Amino acid sequence: MSLIECNLTVLGLTGVEDKLQDNVKVTLENLKNGGMKIWMLTGDKIETAISIAISSKIFDRNTDYKIISNTTDLETIKTFFNEIKRFNMDALVVDGVSLSTIMEECFDEFIDLSMELKGVIGCRFSPTQKALVARALRLRSKKIVCCIGDGGNDVSMITEANLGIGIVGKEGNQASLAADYSIEKFCYVTELFYWHGRNSYKNSATIANLIIHRGIILSVLQGLFCALINFIPFNLYVGIIMIAFVSIYTFFPIFSSVFTTDVSREVTQMFPELYKEPVEQTLLSIKEFTSWNLMSFIQGTIIMFAMVWYFDKELLV
Fold first, then answer.
1. Is the pLDDT of residue 247 over 90?
2. pLDDT, tens digit, for every residue of 20-66?
3. Keywords, A to Z (predicted)?
4. Degrees, nearest 5: CA angle 195-181-155
5. 151-195 per-position pLDDT tens digit
6. Taking each helix axis from N to C terminus, what angle separates 74-86 and 96-105, rounded to the nearest 10 degrees?
7. How far apart are CA 126 and CA 157, in angstroms?
8. Residues ≥6 apart with Cβ < 8 Å to 54
9. What structural domains does the chain harbor?
10. Residue whose C-alpha is closest to residue 274's, from 28, 30, 15, 26
11. Alpha-carbon distance values, 10 to 7, 16, 317 (Å)
């Protein structure tokens, strides 16, 4: 090129700018405030990837990150890993050449180290490398991995994630068709997570707990009733009572849980910290499940003894 590009008269200059979508900075900041870790896996070169990471606020200008580029020596890579641990660096930038060596020699160590960092940038990644990183994160971390992409190169990565989101863009609809969810703009991700995702989680958890709750109450009532009549196998509920209990008496709490929300759509966007509840799985934890079961046993016992007290003579006769 140096032999060709000489003694030339420049007549014009053309520049191409690949702009970020609207509200990318705010969206990524909200995702981080909601307890998520942001990784960026791209096919761009290192300089471009770092520039995008800074402009989109994945990195700020004070982020201390380590660059691993064009490194095929295992000892050198492990030296870089030790430097990241020793100096408590915030982030890691790695290219596809170095990742190939890492995948062959110390991929698990790389994943474990990366999960402790605030962010990771992957540059010059092939579609296969993106997919392998997504799969390793899903299997190694035991966390929910969400992959977002807008091009054909992101399809394999999206399919490997627990949750795939495709953005309809100028690069075609391949990612959108392969994903679990399709959106038109990246900024819609916050509404998808913080409003629809949070409500879906809370409603699913509430309905599951209510169904188990009413089932345990029925069992407790039947068990205590049999104990009071010397364990005679007598059915406490006739058919119509059971149908009414399931379809009428306990229908309204379940129905209301689907159509009511604890906060408005605007509040979820203003306070992304509310999303930490589904991230931490507080409503489907062992503690929550135990408390619902204990409450069911207590309520069933109270109902039965209240009926015994009220119908004392009829029951004993």
1. no
2. 788 888 999 999 888 889 999 998 899 989 988 988 888 887 889 99
3. ATP-binding, Lipid transport, Magnesium, Membrane, Metal-binding, Nucleotide-binding, Translocase, Transmembrane, Transmembrane helix, Transport
4. 140
5. 888 999 999 999 999 998 776 788 888 999 999 999 999 999 999
6. 100
7. 10
8. 60, 61
9. 24-187 (3.40.50.1000), 192-316 (no CATH)
10. 30
11. 10, 17, 109
Q: What does the alpha-carbon distance between residue 272 and residue 87 come to, in Å, rounded to a whole number?
A: 31
Q: Is 158 exposed, middle or buried (0-12, 13-18, 19+ CB in 10 A)?
A: buried
First to last CA, the chain: 106
Phi, psi of 73 (to 5 degrees): -90, 125
User: Angle CA(80)–CA(135)–CA(285) in degrees, nearest 5?
Assistant: 105
**CA torsion angle 50 56 61 66 (round to 10):** -30
Distance (Å, whole) CA 235 – CA 238:
7
CA 4 to CA 146: how far, in whole Å?
47
Measured in degrees and rounded to the nearest 5, phi and psi for residue 126 equal: -80, 160
Task: Note the pLDDT tens digit of each residue in 96-108.
Answer: 999 999 998 899 9
For 127-139, what is the mean pLDDT? 93
Q: What percent of the chain has pLDDT over 70?
A: 96
b/e for 104-117, b at 16 or more Cβ within 10 A? eebbeebbebbeeb
Contact 160, 144 (CB under 8 A): no
Grouping H, G, I as helix, E, B as strand and the rest as coil, residue 64 is: coil
Q: Is the four-CA dihedral 89, 95, 98, 99 of positive or negative sign?
A: positive
CB distance 58 to 40 below 8 Å: yes
193 vs 172: CA distance, rounded Å: 24
Q: What is the pLDDT of residue 138?
A: 92
